Amino acid sequence: MFAETIIGYIDFVKNKIPLRNFEREANVSSNLALLLHSIDYAQDRASKKRELCDLITRYSLWNEGEKIIGVIEEAMVNGQDTAGKEIQLSRPQPLTRDTFEHVIDSVATKATLSEIDVPRIRQELPPGPYAFDLLIYEPEQNRLRAIHMLYGVAAQEGALGKWYGEATFGACLWDRLGRQYFGIEDALCEFALIDPLLNDSLVEDGIWALADLDRLIGKPGLADKALNVQEALREEVTLWLGDVFAKSQADQERLIDEAFVEIALQAIDSLHKPNYRILTPRSESP
Question: Which pairs from 195-199 meet CB under 8 Å and 24+ separation?
Fold first, then answer.
């Protein structure tokens, strides 16, 4: 009883620039942990694996993307705020991603099978393509860097063209908003597109592979770290679901990789359309 006493609450750091909102990553990690632990609780583990295989695979791909973009963010931000000063935390012990992952896993292991709401988890799967973004302002260089990581974009010419159009519009919009909202004048805008499904960068299309992150970000060792994260997470999926796909480990790894590609390409075909309207003098009032 004493161990269940509430001793505090988690308060995520929210900065307009440069930190991403961690809540989506936390939700994905939490739901994935619950799905995996529901297999442990099941009387028939094989049947439960088959039942949840597709959902777990989709959540695993989201989780992989969030972890990789987190590694890139860590390398780019490196504890600096938008003014280039070290962030001063008012609390004595900051909460890191690794620590929070242990918290999530601990909470999931305490949930009973009846408390794991699979329909809710299925509904909370993020919609649209597997896309992850970073917006980093580097005051020393007066440079804004927008990193867009989109699974499967190299195989979709339409999605590639759409991104190039967005980059042009984004540069024009930032030129206005940077001045008026952040007091940033004449910042250089740099845009980069990453496809984690690529083994090698596509130079002519301007798409980066994870293997070239050192060159893109300018941080030695970042590519290896991102690739190691991807490999470790793929191994975890193989550990949990491998026998659903095939008998041999080599076939399991190959088929899981193919499943990730298929899921990513299906999702990119349903590119999310922004919810907007242009108000004109003839428009109806909101």
Answer: 195/149, 195/150, 195/151, 195/152, 195/153, 195/154, 196/64, 196/65, 196/68, 196/149, 196/151, 196/230, 197/151, 197/152, 197/154, 197/155, 197/260, 197/261, 197/264, 198/154
Question: What number of H helices and E strands is found in the chain?
Answer: 8, 4
228-240: pLDDT as tens digits: 999 999 999 999 9
Residue 194 bridge partners (DSSP): 149, 208
For residue range 67-105, what is the model confidence (pLDDT) as tens digits? Answer: 999 999 988 876 454 344 444 445 555 666 666 666 666
Question: Phi and psi (nearest 5°) for 143?
Answer: -130, 135
CA 20 and chain centroid, separation: 10
CB 154 within 8 A of CB 204: no
This prediction has a pTM of 0.84
d(CA 37, CA 67): 20
The alpha-carbon radius of gyration of the chain (Å, integer) is 21
Positive or negative torsion for Cα 165, 171, 177, 178 = positive
